[in-house]
Structure formats: C-alpha cells, structure tokens
Amino acid sequence: MGGIKRLGDVTLIQLSNLDSNIYLLGDTVIDSGTGFNFTRLYQAFKMLKMGFSDIKNIVNTHGHFDHIGGNGYFIDANIAIHDADADIVENGDVKKSYAEYYDGKLNPRNVNRRLKDGDTINVGKLDLEVIHTPGHTPGSICLYDKKSETLFTGDTVFSDGVGRTDMPGGNEEDLSASLDRLSGLKVKALLPGHGNVLVLESSKTLKDIMATQPAGSND
Ligand SMILES: [Zn+2]
User: Fold this and answer.
1) Closest-CA residue to 41 (of 98, 2, 92)
2) Dist. CA 64 → ligand 1 center (Å)
3) Residues 20-32: tens digit of each pLDDT
4) Rounded mean pLDDT of the chain?
5) Residue 177, SS3 per DSSP
6) Cα 1 to middle of ligand 1, angstroms
7) Ligand 1 center to residue 155 CA distance, Å?
8) How far, in Å, from the CA of 71 to the mean position of ligand 1?
9) Are 25 and 126 in contact (CB under 8 A)?
10) CA distance 189 to 200
11) Fewer beta carbons within 10 Å, N or C terminal of the chain?
12) Span from the CA of 146 to the centroid of ligand 1 (angstroms)
C-alpha cells in the first residue's frame, strides 16, 4: 500500500495501512498520518515538487494519533481541529490520542484555530463547511464542499462502513446521531480517513451510499 492519487483539486497521499489518508489541497493538508513513515512522506512530497515547509495549514479531522502524528513535520503550518479534540494536540496527550497504543510520541503543539460546527474553511476552490460529528471521538468533524459535493469524513464514515466507537472518547449514540445528520447530504466524492475513496458519476445522498455498504465497523 502507498502512493499518490489525483482527485481533481485534491491529492491523496497514502503511506501505509496504519497511517490516515493525507489529503493535500494547495498549501493545506487534511490529516497528517502517524509520523512514522518519514521517508515515504518525504518522497511523496518530492514527487509533487513540494517540501514540508510549503504546507501552511493543517486540518485534523480528530485527535487520534494516526491522523495527527505527522503534524510535527509541518512546522510552518497552523493547526485547526475541533475544540473538543484540540487539547489532545495541545497537550500531546498519548492516552486520548491512542499514541501510547502505537508506541508513538506526540509533541505538544499549539492549536491556532479551534473549530466549531458551522465554521467555514476556505481552501483554494473549496469552501469546506465544518460539520461536528462526534461519536468516533468527541471532536470528530466532517468537511463538506457544497458546490462540488465533496465530503471529507475522517473516521466517521468510510467507503465500506462507519467509524468505531470502542476507542477512547467513542460514543455509539453520538455516532448514530452524527450519521443521521450526514445522511441527507448529497455526495459525489466521499474522502474518508482510511482506505479507498469513493468518486461517483452522479451524486447520491450519504444515506443511499451507506445503504449499499456491508455491515461492520472500521478504524
Ligand atoms: Zn480515529
């Protein structure tokens, strides 16, 4: 596993099965992986004719280690994460981030923007609406660009299932309420925190997409 995929204005970098998907949009990354795979990340950036210092903004979909561990490579970037998970980044919390479980280290890092539901993040041509979707963690978010019907889902929804709730901060009732909230969104591109992306010929509601998913949950 590993590689670079171009998806219109978005570039997907995949490093390993453990690392979150890293989405690159201009000078912004959505999630940063574990930080374990420096060489692969460095090579991916080199292939894109970029360096880590070109990244000025990081948006973390939630505070789990496999999504925030790579933040440390982007020292020139401002970090945005939902208010409810922001302390994990600021404290370098190895328990709540699950870093401990991976034997990972997490340097405390200042959060520049504590996101809340309804905020908008402008990234190039995309106007990403922050949708607070607790359940996988208290501060999990999805990001939705209405115009292109692009939905970044973090670990809340995958192309083949939904996020797990048995990790620190997980809550099944919250997840189910979050999924209800997302279900009416029209989606043409589903860009999850792990695994395959889903790009459709014509848009479907998230509810219809999820109806065709196999039962079970994922990371
Ligand atoms: Zn997670």
Assistant:
1) 2
2) 5
3) 999 999 999 999 9
4) 95
5) helix
6) 19
7) 5
8) 15
9) yes
10) 6
11) N
12) 24
What is the distance in A from the centroid of ligand 1 to the CA of 45?
A: 24
What tens digit of pLDDT does each residue of 151-178 get? 999 999 999 999 999 988 899 999 999 9
* Residue position matching structure tokens 């973090």: 154
Q: Which residue bears the tokens 């999504």?
A: 67
Distance 99 CA to ligand 1 centre (A): 11
Cα 125 to averaged position of ligand 1 atoms, centre (Å): 27
Distance from the alpha carbon of residue 193 to the mean position of ligand 1, in angstroms: 8
Model confidence at 2, pLDDT cuts 50, 70, 90, reads: low
pLDDT over threshold 70, residue 219: no
* 50 Cα to the center of ligand 1, angstroms: 27
Q: How far is CA 37 from CA 29, 77, 79, in A?
A: 16, 19, 20
Q: What is the pLDDT of residue 214?
A: 67
Please tell me the distance between residue 203's alpha carbon and the centre of ligand 1 in angstroms: 26
Q: Give the position of tokens 């792990």.
A: 194
Residue written as tokens 């978005």?
A: 10
Residue 33 burial (C-beta neighbours within 10 Å; 0-12, 13-18, 19+):
buried
